Amino acid sequence: ALRLNSLDGYSRFDGPVVLIIMDGVGVGSHDERDGVYVANTPMLDSLMQEPLTMTLNAHGKAVGLPSDDDMGNSEVGHNALGAGRVFAQGARLVNEALATGEVFRGKAWSELMGRAEAGGTLHFIGLVSDGNVHSHIKQLYALLEACADQEVKRVRVHALLDGRDVGPKSALDFILPLEEKLAELSQEGRDYRIASGGGRMITTMDRYNANWDVVRYGWNAHVLGKGRQFGSASEAIQTYYNEDAAITDQYMESFVVVEEGAPVGTIEDGDGVVFFNFRGDRAIEISRAFEEDDFAIFDRVTRPNVFYAGLMQYDGDAQIPKNYLVEPPAIDKTLSEYLCAAGVTSYAISETQKFGHVTYFWNGNRSGYIDKDLEIYEEVGSDLVPFNERPWMKAAEITDKVITQLRGGKAKFIRLNFANCDMVGHTGVPEAIRIAVETVDMCLSRLLKEVERAGGVAIVTADHGNADCMWTEKKGKRTPMVAHTLNPVPFIVKDFSKANVLAKTGVEGAGLANVAATICVLLGFAPPKEYEPSLLAISKN
Ligand code: 3PG
Ligand code: CO
């Protein structure tokens, strides 16, 4: 069993430790394109001057990604925060499994090959970009090449368009080369092509049950061949650009590729299907639609008998999906497990769009409670609109609920995520980003007053940057920067209890993985020895 030892020389205090995650708030360039800098943020500005304030690395190798050119994201960020150390993440594990050929030696791959040999089509559904947050196009290429090598006759790709982790109108940069690649591979009797697709926010990639219609549109396009018809994926994209100058890739309507009026690649009995995203949050719902026998969330019309595999397993607790090509990171000994074993009560809250971030990602990609008697998870329902139209989102409601906890609840550890700066940051609309940042600042100041009243300790940080860069500029022309950034994030500790004298430990190159041990210290425990070191210590004087 996991065990936490008490910390020598530590004085208990009444209030809780409150971790406030400002999703998408990095420390940026401090100029006009830095949305955090240009917003009016009196609370954050003063916190940045506090003696216990520092910045943390939140991207690249510091969070288990292949290289330091990889921006951070919420999955790897919350994994690192909640597990206290860095695990090689999906992006890296898949690259390695492709390089060693391990992908092709497992049971799932041979099942897929079996389907192909028996005359079935192999379908690859997923996000087509090099964003490296949910997927990478090079990994898709490697899978397609392996199909050709192994004489798979018929392959169909169902291409979800990104425009969120990459440039907002970059779809053709990926789809044209993919179409070319598929044409090249279509030799010696092979027939490989794109069959359907659509923008990721409209097609297939919903998360946390926010809007199942998105999955239904995807199912209709990929499986049933229902949707707006085009002669090719690139033609669909070009047409959408021509029809609406303001459209961006992530919001493009689902499409179906047809020939002589008939869809070229519906999904049929006997086929194999690979969902080639490695990240789980937006892969779980479509996997459920393929796998569940009793499925009542939307009418599937038909449910073909296919062999379905994820590139990874997306939820280890719920075993979604059952079959997968690459073993996911084995994230164990999470802070939640330790705190539950020590009998510490906790409360986790966010709105729908980030609810799984503070539960599922925080707990190492497990969806359930660890100990229901000690934990409360609370979700505030997100709006169903483009978030630039409601940049305040549910920050005030989350704040209200945390305040209720602070006044009457029993939780000794509270964690919350404000989605605003990330979700609005992904729209790239400067005037909305400003409101998002200011909303979070206002909520921060309400929360800190209450943490003070409760005699607790507040930690303010972020999982990665986003709002801290709103556009890129080339030859005087601005392009919205909707993706995350490579910037470090703030790490602020405001100790209202004054029960202990806290000092920085001076860890060099600190990152998000150092936060869990720091929380242990603030709660009066010696951090587990496998954790990255605490950023603060109780000084005994
Ligand atoms: C998304 O899924 O919305 C983006 O690809 C990544 O955003 P997140 O990592 O902040 O959730
Ligand atoms: Co984001």
TrEMBL record:
<feature type="binding site">
    <location>
        <position position="484"/>
    </location>
    <ligand>
        <name>Mn(2+) 1</name>
    </ligand>
</feature>
<dbReference type="GO" id="GO:0004619">
    <property type="term" value="F:phosphoglycerate mutase activity"/>
</dbReference>
<dbReference type="InterPro" id="IPR006124">
    <property type="entry name" value="Metalloenzyme"/>
</dbReference>
<keyword id="KW-0324">Glycolysis</keyword>
<feature type="binding site">
    <location>
        <position position="207"/>
    </location>
    <ligand>
        <name>substrate</name>
    </ligand>
</feature>
<dbReference type="Pfam" id="PF06415">
    <property type="entry name" value="iPGM_N"/>
</dbReference>
<feature type="binding site">
    <location>
        <begin position="279"/>
        <end position="282"/>
    </location>
    <ligand>
        <name>substrate</name>
    </ligand>
</feature>
<feature type="binding site">
    <location>
        <position position="134"/>
    </location>
    <ligand>
        <name>substrate</name>
    </ligand>
</feature>
<dbReference type="GO" id="GO:0030145">
    <property type="term" value="F:manganese ion binding"/>
</dbReference>
<feature type="binding site">
    <location>
        <position position="422"/>
    </location>
    <ligand>
        <name>Mn(2+) 1</name>
    </ligand>
</feature>
<keyword id="KW-0479">Metal-binding</keyword>
<keyword id="KW-0464">Manganese</keyword>
<feature type="binding site">
    <location>
        <begin position="164"/>
        <end position="165"/>
    </location>
    <ligand>
        <name>substrate</name>
    </ligand>
</feature>
<dbReference type="InterPro" id="IPR036646">
    <property type="entry name" value="PGAM_B_sf"/>
</dbReference>
<feature type="domain" description="Metalloenzyme">
    <location>
        <begin position="16"/>
        <end position="526"/>
    </location>
</feature>
<dbReference type="GO" id="GO:0006007">
    <property type="term" value="P:glucose catabolic process"/>
</dbReference>
<comment type="function">
    <text>Catalyzes the interconversion of 2-phosphoglycerate and 3-phosphoglycerate.</text>
</comment>
<keyword id="KW-0413">Isomerase</keyword>
<feature type="binding site">
    <location>
        <position position="74"/>
    </location>
    <ligand>
        <name>Mn(2+) 2</name>
    </ligand>
</feature>
<dbReference type="Pfam" id="PF01676">
    <property type="entry name" value="Metalloenzyme"/>
</dbReference>
<feature type="active site" description="Phosphoserine intermediate">
    <location>
        <position position="74"/>
    </location>
</feature>
<feature type="binding site">
    <location>
        <position position="463"/>
    </location>
    <ligand>
        <name>Mn(2+) 2</name>
    </ligand>
</feature>
<dbReference type="InterPro" id="IPR017850">
    <property type="entry name" value="Alkaline_phosphatase_core_sf"/>
</dbReference>
<dbReference type="GO" id="GO:0005737">
    <property type="term" value="C:cytoplasm"/>
</dbReference>
<feature type="binding site">
    <location>
        <position position="23"/>
    </location>
    <ligand>
        <name>Mn(2+) 2</name>
    </ligand>
</feature>
<dbReference type="GO" id="GO:0006096">
    <property type="term" value="P:glycolytic process"/>
</dbReference>
<dbReference type="InterPro" id="IPR005995">
    <property type="entry name" value="Pgm_bpd_ind"/>
</dbReference>
<feature type="binding site">
    <location>
        <position position="354"/>
    </location>
    <ligand>
        <name>substrate</name>
    </ligand>
</feature>
<feature type="binding site">
    <location>
        <position position="200"/>
    </location>
    <ligand>
        <name>substrate</name>
    </ligand>
</feature>
<dbReference type="InterPro" id="IPR011258">
    <property type="entry name" value="BPG-indep_PGM_N"/>
</dbReference>
<comment type="pathway">
    <text>Carbohydrate degradation; glycolysis; pyruvate from D-glyceraldehyde 3-phosphate: step 3/5.</text>
</comment>
<feature type="binding site">
    <location>
        <position position="464"/>
    </location>
    <ligand>
        <name>Mn(2+) 2</name>
    </ligand>
</feature>
<feature type="domain" description="BPG-independent PGAM N-terminal">
    <location>
        <begin position="94"/>
        <end position="315"/>
    </location>
</feature>
<feature type="binding site">
    <location>
        <position position="426"/>
    </location>
    <ligand>
        <name>Mn(2+) 1</name>
    </ligand>
</feature>
<protein>
    <recommendedName>
        <fullName>2,3-bisphosphoglycerate-independent phosphoglycerate mutase</fullName>
        <ecNumber>5.4.2.12</ecNumber>
    </recommendedName>
</protein>
<comment type="similarity">
    <text>Belongs to the BPG-independent phosphoglycerate mutase family.</text>
</comment>
